[in-house]
Every structure is written in structure tokens, then in C-alpha cells.
């Protein structure tokens, strides 16, 4: 995500060699979603470059490959999972959580499969699950079944809050495109562990995005005051201003929790001059 075209020359310097792009992103945010690992497992050399560009306290939330979660649906996945874990080893503590996003067809009847999969995972990593089947949000028995399964292995439940996005009809090409692709997820805002992870989808209008995340400002501030370490990812339909909005969200939380460390200062996009 740190190579997003809309950021180049505007939020991060351009052109930049591949080995410097992530480093510039770390001036904006202290964590990143590793969504590309869902589509293809990177080389170990590539992951080593990520480690070299980031401090040990920078966080990657890396999505497991789709062959594991979608194609094989957590069955018979020892080989691709082992290969993935070997590749990300250079990240060390930067691999803040491994993100297990299961398909929308993964239903409460599949929770036993998830339980077996989670029990076999190595304890060297933290894990977080994102489900999209409506029953987990609308059926209290299904929700409790999933909560018990996750709690048994210290696994987090990642909510993807799209309620603000779907509250009004789309008004731009980017919003219309996202309208057909993004899931309409019921709101869920509980944490299961000391490191909750939230994904939030806003609108093109930054003020609408901010209005929609006010419940999360309250919740994240509360988590921090409880001693938890939450991660909050901000998305918009085209993600053009996502880093700016992420910093705005952080500032709003920090106004509630002054002890929260400030985010780093982004590197100048253009060289400084005397004129």
C-alpha cells in the first residue's frame, strides 16, 4: 500500500527507488496493512528489504495467502503456510499480527475448522481473524461461538466498519466503484485481546469520514486508557488521502489521551530551498 500512485509526488517524494518507498511511508504512519501478501507470497529478499526500511516498533498486519484462506479454506495448508511463515521471518517483531481473512461464505458451521487451524498455528505470532458472513454479526449464538473459539487461542476479531460508507448513496466514480466491491458489514466494536485491530472505510469527503469515526475515537481512547495497544486503519474509496486521514484520527484520539505518542513527521516531498 505504501506505493499507492495517488501519494507519489504529493504525500511522498517521487520518484523513489523501491528500497526507499516504505521508509517514506513510515513518516506518515506507524503500521501498514499487508494486503498484497494475500495475492502472492513475496520473496524473502523483498521482506528483508521491508525490515531494513522500518524500525523494530513499526507494525505490519499481514494477510495470509488466499491459497490458505480462500482456495483451501484452512484445510491441508501446512506447506503454503510454512512457506509464508519462513518468508516473513526477517520482519521479527514488526509482524504485529497475521491477518486471517476468511471468505464471506465461511459460516458458523465452519468454526470447527477455524478452531483446528488456530490450534495448530505456531505461538511465535499473534493472529487476528476477519469474518464476513452475516450470521456472525446478527446471530448472538454464532457470535458467541466465534468469540469462544478466538479467545481460546488469544486471537483477535478484526471488525471492518463500512457503516459510514454505506450510510449515503455514492457521489463519485471512486465511491460508486467501492459501492459494488466493499462488503456491507454490521458494526462490531468489541476487543478480545490487548491489541485490537480495526479497519474503517470512510467517504471521499474527509468531514464525513471524521463524523463517522467518532464512535471509534471514543472506543480507541478507552482501549488506550485500559492499557491496550490498538491499531486503526483508515480507508477511503480511492485511498488518495488515507494517510492524512489516519493522522487526523490519531490527533483526535490524542486530544483525549495526551500521553499517546505523536506520529512521526513526514519527510518533505520537495527539497527545501531558500526561495
From TrEMBL:
InterPro entries with a match to the protein in the record: DUF72 (IPR002763), UPF0759_sf (IPR036520)
Top-level division of the source organism's lineage: Bacteria
Annotated Gene3D superfamilies: Protein of unknown function UPF0759 (3.20.20.410)
PANTHER family tied to this protein: UNCHARACTERIZED PROTEIN YECE, UPF0759 PROTEIN YECE
Protein name, entry field: DUF72 domain-containing protein
Amino acid at each position: 500500500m505504501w506505493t499507492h500512485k495517488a501519494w507519489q509526488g504529493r504525500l511522498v517524494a517521487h520518484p523513489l527507488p523501491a528500497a526507499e518507498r516504505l521508509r517514506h511511508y513510515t513518516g506518515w504512519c506507524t503500521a501498514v496493512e499487508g494486503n498484497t501478501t494475500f495475492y502472492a507470497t513475496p520473496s524473502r529478499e523483498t521482506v528483508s528489504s521491508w525490515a531494513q526500511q522500518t524500525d523494530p516498533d513499526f507494525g505490519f498486519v499481514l494477510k495470509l495467502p488466499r491459497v490458505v484462506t480462500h482456495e483451501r479454506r484452512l484445510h491441508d495448508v501446512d506447506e503454503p503456510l510454512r512457506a509464508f511463515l519462513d518468508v516473513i521471518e526477517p520482519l521479527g517483531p514488526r509482524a504485529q499480527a497475521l491477518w486471517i481473512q476468511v471468505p464471506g461464505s465461511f459460516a458458523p458451521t465452519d468454526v470447527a475448522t477455524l478452531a483446528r487451524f488456530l490450534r495448530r498455528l505456531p505461538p511465535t505470532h499473534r493472529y487476528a481473524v476477519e469474518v464476513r458472513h452475516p450470521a456472525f454479526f446478527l446471530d448472538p449464538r454464532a457470535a458467541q461461538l466465534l468469540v469462544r473459539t478466538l479467545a481460546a487461542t488469544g486471537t483477535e476479531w478484526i471488525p471492518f466498519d463500512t457503516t459510514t460508507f454505506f450510510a449515503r448513496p455514492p457521489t463519485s466514480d471512486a465511491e460508486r466503484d467501492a459501492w459494488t466491491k466493499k462488503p456491507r458489514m454490521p458494526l462490531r466494536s468489541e476487543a478480545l485481546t490487548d491489541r485490537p485491530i480495526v479497519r474503517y472505510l470512510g467517504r471521499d469527503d474527509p468531514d464525513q469520514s471524521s463524523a463517522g469515526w467518532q464512535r471509534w475515537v471514543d472506543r480507541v481512547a478507552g482501549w488506550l486508557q485500559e492499557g491496550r495497544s490498538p491499531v486503526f486503519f483508515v480507508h477511503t474509496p480511492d485511498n488518495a488521502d488515507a494517510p492524512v486521514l489516519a493522522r487526523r484520527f490519531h490527533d483526535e484520539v490524542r486530544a483525549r489521551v495526551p500521553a499517546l505518542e505523536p506520529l512521526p513527521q513526514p519527510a518533505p516531498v520537495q527539497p527545501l530551498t531558500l526561495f
